[in-house]
């Protein structure tokens, strides 16, 4: 139950993204409904009726004047009558959300608006979903743009977004190299699975990547199938507004803008699986790997490595792949890792921190990744990220719902420590590409790895790895001992 102390505490910080004050002495103000829609479509908030705001007053103690309302019973009755009419498409309030509070003998009507559930957004006015939908920012209520309304409508689909049948997109639009790499990993994780013996089309159909609509006599790739395993050109033709971008800002010298980048340059099939496979090793190769044994085997997979995989997976499965100018952007800095995906959070932040809920926009892609070991179940992923980072002294992870940009950002702080490869080849590391550093790190962990095995672990092609191995040999960093089948790689030390 709110009190005068609560009211005064609310006013102490002034109007903001979750507080709105209105005079409303004898009637419910017309613009209350815009605020109702805006709060419901954003983070929720509190509306106070019976308070005058003096906008030119800079002193917050003098800025708000509690004048009260003249007839609180009439205002409350009118409010309930209107909200239960066709003024708004959904009444998401309960009786306890509206109450009258006595402040020094003056009555203030307090209306608490919760954030609407993702399944019923948008909350809009006057039976007009495009002109009657509002959101909230620090400057007040604003009309949502059509693309923002469409995003909320997409988010209300219980079955997610990635099951759409893409007519005229067939198996010819699948990059078989990407699909076969995935199938090889699938066999490792699911040795005896019956899907291992079926053809590519049937395999993709079982995964939800290919759809047959018997009623309409149509079939083709789903959005999940094309985006995960498709060729670059068909993806750009169908989803031209969506991009994937990886940038490394570590160890910059002089005027360098970045030290490594992966973007659309024609050198890889720009599907999600290749992006994930290529970028993930680059994000994790220099994370500390404390010595730990389980039985007679060393374990190098730390909770922090798992957390980074989970963060990357979450960015993909929660991305709004249909958003205009949407960018799945992964960044590596000296002091942090950043994961950005288009589309706002479907659940309130507090629910995500608590865990136990999972509302992925792309449940089929989520399942594809989960079946090869990426992604936790039932919404436990983010609490595991928090727990993994608590074991370090690197700082607290920060999850941001960036309303103004229609994107989510997760920041994982890092300690400024020397990476594993730098300890091995200190003087030449700046001359190496990040891809070559990844290869050296793999060799340090297992000197017997073949180029094909490195390809499976990184998503790089065997030809690319063989070329980098040759370059590392030319630089005097790496040499081979023994034959091709029974030999091993040796990293030279300059110490």
Describe this structure in words.
The chain is an alpha+beta fold and 495 residues long. The chain has 3 domains: 4-149, Methyltransferase, Cobalt-precorrin-4 Transmethylase, Domain 2 (2-Layer Sandwich); 171-413, Heat Shock Protein 90, CATH 3.30.565.60; 420-491, Winged helix-like DNA-binding domain superfamily/Winged helix DNA-binding domain (Arc Repressor Mutant, subunit A, Orthogonal Bundle), CATH 1.10.10. Helix content is 34%, strand content 18%. It contains 18 helices and 20 strands. The protein has helices at residues 4-11, 32-41, 60-63, 72-83, 146-155, 176-189, 200-207, 223-229, 232-238, 272-284, 303-317, 349-354, 363-370, 381-390, 420-424, 434-445, 451-458, 462-474; strands spanning 19-22, 45-49, 51-53, 64-66, 98-103, 106-113, 134-137, 140-143, 210-213, 218-221, 243-248, 260-262, 293-294, 297-298, 327-332, 336-342, 398-402, 407-413, 478-481, 488-491. It has a 6-stranded mixed sheet with strand order 12-11-15-16-18-17, covered by helices on one side. Strands 1-2-6-5 form a 4-stranded mixed sheet, with helices on both faces. The protein has a two-stranded antiparallel ribbon with strand order 3-4. The longest helix has 15 residues, at 303-317. The N and C termini lie far apart (69 Å). The model is unreliable at 417-428 (pLDDT under 50).
